[in-house]
Amino acid sequence: MRVLGIETSCDETGVAIYDTGKGLLGHALFSQVDLHAEYGGVVPELASRDHVRKLLPLVREVMRRTDTHPRDLDGIAYTAGPGLVGALMVGACAGRALAYGWGLPAVAVHHMEGHLLAPMLEERPPSFPFVALLVSGGHTQLVDVRGLGDYRLMGESLDDAAGEAFDKAAKMLDLDYPGGPRLAALAEKGDPERFTFPRPMTDRPGLDFSFSGLKTYTLTTVRQYAQADGLPDEQTCADIAAAFQEAVVDTLVIKCRRAIRVSGHKTLVVAGGVSANKLLRTRLESRLREEGAGVYYPRHEFCTDNGAMIAYAGCLRLQAGERSGLAVEVRPRWPM
Ligand code: KG4
Ligand code: ZN
């Protein structure tokens, strides 16, 4: 089975072709980062318009590069949610229309399912069951994954997502959008022991998270050391970034260890934009080894939004006999 996957839920236009026999044949991504940078965050209307401009040329490019003709395809998968409604509409309309025009079945994919299955595209894929830590700009969730579509939410953030907290803390330190990776880079120059930030909700049982207090703590520290230009000196900014990153990573690691113990599974899968964070990776690997559990990630480029994870998830869904109807429906909010 060969499936074309389309991802347009936020600010990346992603297209890929996955083949059950040959694996991932090809993928292409157009990032809108530069477009939104001057606004300090994603502008939904601009995102939709740019997906309209980029999507079909990307589909054409991936088809050409992989030498795929529409008759070689067995289906089309598109992200139907959660995400920005206008952005989702672009991918869903295009995916549904192409499938109709080419006489193929279409399937609507849950964006977070795409993320949690992304490590399966790697050479050494994890197998079910596992615990998934989904950490992106919009989600922080621990999920008990027993099989395709058999997902139980174990815990989630009650307020900001981890990626969102990274982005907001980065803004307080006057770092450009997207802040997460920039804050992580600044943290490498900092002393993680100069400040100790709280580890929210780790002193009580349960697997939920809360990152908004950490944001306030960051702001208070920035103001406390602010100079005439409103920012602390360079080294203090780096020390704050390091303390913030330590606190988020430590909190995530504590809850992952707990989730592994509660579930009895021996595998942790980490996906979503924040899974690109180096400190999170090294900490998780060492702390979960102590629990006898293995940790799996997607390759770096598939940590953030991409078409490959949608093509793959769609392929599994189509194989399981799932089809979406002719009406184009998107779900900006869609519990997994
Ligand atoms: O999964 P993703 O591409 O989009 C969403 O579905 O949200 O995740 C993007 C998020 C952003 O908040 C970004 O700042 C964060 O992932 N991120 C990072 C790093 N790389 C991306 N956060 C911390 N450290 C990183 N290295
Ligand atoms: Zn995402």
Quickly describe the structure.
This is tRNA N6-adenosine threonylcarbamoyltransferase. It is found in: Cytoplasm. This protein has 336 residues and is α/β, with parallel strands linked by helices.
Please bin the fraction of helical residues.
Answer: 40-55%
Small molecules held by this entry: 5'-O-[(R)-(carboxyoxy)(hydroxy)phosphoryl]adenosine, zinc ion
**Can you summarize the main beta sheet?**
5 strands, mixed
Unreliable residue runs: none
Shape: globular
Query: Which structural class do the helices and strands define?
Result: alpha/beta
**Lateral strand order in the biggest sheet:** 3-2-1-4-5
Report strand %.
15-25%
Number of helices: 10
Order of helix and strand elements from N to C terminus: EEEHHEHEHEEEHHHHEHEH
First-to-last CA distance: 25 Å
What value does the average pLDDT take? 97
What Rg, in angstroms, do the CA atoms define?
20 Å
Give the strand tally: 10
Structure description:
The chain has helices spanning 33-37, 44-65, 85-101, 111-117, 162-172, 179-187, 212-224, 234-263, 278-289, 308-319; strands at 2-7, 12-19, 23-31, 75-81, 106-110, 130-135, 140-147, 150-156, 267-271, 294-296. It has 336 residues and is an alpha/beta fold. The strands form two sheets. The protein has a five-stranded mixed β-sheet, with helices on both faces. It has a five-stranded mixed β-sheet with strand order 8-7-6-9-10, sandwiched between helices. β6 (130-135) and β7 (140-147) form a beta hairpin. The protein binds 5'-O-[(R)-(carboxyoxy)(hydroxy)phosphoryl]adenosine and zinc ion (ZN). Residues 10, 136-138, 163-164, 166-167, 178-181, 184, 272-274, 276-277, 304-305 line the site of 5'-O-[(R)-(carboxyoxy)(hydroxy)phosphoryl]adenosine.
